[in-house]
Amino acid sequence: MSTASPRPQLSLDELRRLKWLLGGLLALVSLWTVFFLDVEALGLVAVSSGLILAAMVWPRLPSRIPALLWRLAVPAIIVAVAADFYFSAETLPVLIRLAVLLVLYRAVAYRRKREDLQLIVLGMFLVVVGGVLTVSLEFAFLLLVFTACALGFLFVVTIIDMVDTGPKVMRPEEMREVPAWARGSWPKIFARLRRVMDWRMIALAGVLFAGVVGVSALLFMAIPRFEIGSSFFLDKYITRKSRTGFTETVRFGDVTELVRDQSVAMRVDLTDTASLSNLPYFRLIVLDEYTPQGFKMSAGLKSELLRAERVAQVLRGKRTAREAVGGQWTFYVEPGVSRFLPLPGSYTALRLRDPAPVQENSGNRLVALRSETMAMTAFQLDGVELATAVPDVAMVRVLQEHRAGVLRERDPGRYLLGNLAGPTGAENEAALARLVGEITGGAPLDARAFAERATAWMQARHAYALSANIPRGEADDIVRWLDSNEPAFCEFFAGGLTVLSRAAGHPARLVAGFRGGALNAFENYIMVRNSDAHAWVEIFEADGNWIRLDPTPGSEALGNTNATTVARREQDSSWSARFDSLRVIWYRRVVNFDTRQQVELVDSVRSFATVTGDALRARMEAMATRLKAWLAGPWDFDRLRRTVGALALVVALGWLVVRGGRTAWRLWRRWRAPGEFDPVRREAGCWLRELGTGEAQRNTAAGVVGDLQRLRYGRRESWPEPAGVFKRARRTRRELQR
Amino acid sequence: MNAISPNLAVNASDWHGAGATAEARRRFSWRHLVWALVFPVKRHRISVTVSGVFLIGLSLGIGTAAYNTASNILFITLSLLLACLLLSGLLSWINLMGLGWRLRPSRAWRAGHETLITVEVKNAKTWLPTYGLFLDFKTHLRRNIEAEPEVPSGKVREALAAAEKAIARGQLFLRERLEPQGNVALDWVHKPTARGEAVLELEAVGSLFPFGFLRKSVGTDVRQVVLVWPAQVDYHWRGAVSARAGTQGRRTARAGSGDDLFALRKYNRGDSHRLVHWKASARLGRLMVRQFAAESLDGFVLQVDASAAVWSRPEQFELLCSFAGSLAEDLFATGRLQAVSINREPWRETRRVRDVEAFWDRLATLQPAVAGQAAPSDDRSAGSAFPVINRNLITFAPQGARGITAYVDGIPTASA
Fold this sequence. Notes:
The complex is a heterodimer.
Chain A: E1 2-3, H1 12-32, H2 42-57, H3 61-64, H4 67-87, H5 92-108, H6 113-134, H7 137-163, H8 186-196, H9 199-222, E2 249-251, H10 254-259, E3 264-270, E4 281-287, E5 289-291, E6 294-296, H11 299-307, E7 310-316, E8 329-333, E9 349-361, E10 366-369, E11 377-382, E12 389-391, H12 393-404, H13 426-440, H14 447-461, H15 477-482, H16 490-503, E13 508-515, E14 518-520, E15 526-529, E16 533-540, E17 545-549, E18 570-572, H17 575-591, H18 595-632, H19 637-672, H20 679-691, H21 695-700, H22 702-713, H23 722-737
Helix pairs in contact in A: 1-2, 1-5, 1-6, 1-7, 2-5, 4-5, 5-6, 6-7, 13-16, 14-16, 20-22, 20-23, 22-23
Chain B: H1 22-26, H2 30-38, E1 44-48, H3 50-69, H4 72-96, E2 99-103, E3 108-110, E4 115-123, E5 133-141, H5 142-146, H6 156-165, E6 167-174, E7 183-190, E8 196-207, E9 214-229, E10 236-237, H7 239-242, E11 251-266, H8 278-284, E12 288-295, E13 300-304, H9 314-333, E14 337-342, E15 348-349, H10 353-365, E16 393-399, E17 403-408, E18 411-415
Parallel strand pairs in B: 3-9, 13-14, 13-16
Antiparallel strand pairs in B: 1-9, 2-4, 4-7, 5-6, 5-8, 8-9, 10-18, 11-12, 14-15, 16-17, 17-18
Helix pairs in contact in B: 3-4, 9-10
């Protein structure tokens, strides 16, 4: 075989070495997606990554492993996975661990074509599962890297396997032999790759990859969306533990850990941030039952939520006469925050991305998903009002019936009486009675007035701190703390006020959620961090509303129903905020992309095209009108001179730009490959193309074509005078044109 | 006689494919391109490989999951897979753009001998190289493929299988990159099994480039007819005792060690000084030596009678052709073959290799002649300047059901 190729090419062994490298990278990228999943496989992934990396760097390593081990590897994986299935309660983590083990096995073993394809499929499984379960921005990056690796890998595999007509799979006995391709050193391979690389090929590969990304983006937007079903199968096989402590039980001290966590818990995207003069309280969970360790959601409230469970995509709220703020609120809640949805106030509609099992309780203003999802949870609120009062008709009825002594034992609302129950026991009750008396001074006070005094009393005795020091004693923690002068954090203040209110006979409950957040300066949305976690109190007033009260020092004023005076709008323009804004773009444009947005996109493209076309036409018409007016103007010698001068200047500049560009191009070519570039040969080639190959042209230009061919292909010593030949070529072209 | 002589001329017009001429590239238009995408060009084939089937299956699975769950992540993955498939098709199309190919002409093949079939491929693209080409060849004997298959009606599959058996197929791969404006020559080693008129076709030029999902090939109309000479056979020669040395010492047309001056040639190192032709050397200004004609040993003439009445068994007739060809080759190699004749046609003198090859050409296509087809002539020298030969005439006759005996003037001399 002979070839006119002047550039070196990779040999078969070098290609196999490159395949090994790309296969290892592919496996590593796919394994790293597991880091974004909260499954118990991180240790396995770390060990597997180390092994793959070692095998990548030292390709001889697999041959050192005895054949028996290779034979036992697959049965061992099967046994391990069977045991894992037996002992594990969840299915998906087991499958992920299985995929990790298989990727490891395939990546560190020598492979043939079928095994190469298996590696790609296993890697893809991990990437897709990771992406689907987390919908994180990192997935987009890893998917792109994986695609690039997979395409390069497939390209090399195709080139190699064209000539590899042997067996399609690798036998364990073959693993003992060190393949020829594994014997070289990496520096030599990289040096060779560098020699073989061509900037045109790299540029083309880059353009093509960009093309793939662009085409897939177009396809993503253009693929028609209609739902066949809405049940998502993967998340049934995996559950996630709450990271922030917003479960049905919050122990004293849980919030301390949270306030040190600076990661973003949720993002709130408002269509009208200008109308929001303060950052609201995001209500997550109501804790109505007191326990000596902390507060928790009562069983009655839980069962009420369960009874109200239904599959829905849109939940309707009540419209009130007050003005809505913020326009449309879109929430992106990170996985692991809570199964309860954060609500800033009342709303007219709550819209989920997909129909899902939802639990709703209007009296407590709670909305929860049946279970916590692995992925980011997105939902929208319309007509949001930042009212601090939560009307509760059931509470009014239960209280009235309770006071009248007619409340049935099995009344479903009986659990609401738990809002009156505080610490029990003689010591607790005595201490609380003493403290309440100290606060009220023996005067009968309504709920609001009591809360004001109790808050002032607590803030006078206790300072704010991120840790609490509770004195020893027999009473419950919260009572001992109230009876001391120790500083504490929001949970103690809220718990203390709740306990005091209940002791004074006023129904009260502890509410946990987020307060505040920072406005992202780049994409104009609210970033709420885990450190913004907060606890406050809702006290029931005689008018049938639960009123929000925040007794923590430095929080909003007590009973202030319009929170605008306290919260401040903090803007975050740091680098982390810049990166975080990318995530919101990903959520807005990709994760939340649906049929509605698809239609909007088509409409916007159509309107953009129409508007741009109209604007262009109007501009052209205006230019034509101006040109006509300019031409119709009086002409004199001076104007003519100026016009001709300007035209000549433009032509000269254009000529200079073209000439300069060509010269720069030639200089660059000559600098890059001085041996290959010859301007005379190049110009001769241009003239040969221009003079054509037709019969008539050949006859006319017979003489000059011979000389041009000599200049183009002949030895330099045999050249005629180039300038003369090119001059004759120009003359011949004129003759041919005639 | 040279049946394939027209094929021997190699020039620019032998190139086929889109890159064969510069004009072909200039005819590009977007209308043609779009139409070609909608309605593929004749003989352009795209088939899906196992990997491609797998990719399509994977896309379908992910697509179903995406629609089932409305998960945009799955839609993204589906979009990427579809984009990869599109890219694969596009690159495959670009890869085969501007390719030209031609078969280097083959003189003739010999049954049972390996032969090299060379195809040249060029890449007329200006910027982009071509990767991973494969070339599909097929060859068959003309009479095999053109004969009506004797298969009972209704058994098309068997008929096709029988026809396929007569076809030899081969594939060549170009693993290396074919640079823009570059060319490459690839060799296919083929071993013809039977004599005859073989048809060599370059069926398709294709590629699995870039990712092995699609197998795109462009059918070609490159076709060449090549004669396959009979195979060499082993035979037992008893000529030393049977042939009469009537023509020994006869001058031949080859250089040798006889007495007659054959030609003058340039002096080579090691030549005897006695052989220097001084007059010619003086005239030409350089040393010239005399070359003498070789003298033949016992010369033979070989006559093949392909009468169907004599050669009723096809396999015996095939053996006759191979035996006659082998005998002619061996006799010529030892300088003892003087002339040949087939079916009592005029004698043809065998002075040069080309004369023997012409004899093999005839043997390649020789068929049993039924009565009246042959042109027997009593005058063995009719139409030939060769003198009348009365001695050392080799003829052939069947020996039993399978064998053949060669007779020299009626005396059994060799058998196969």
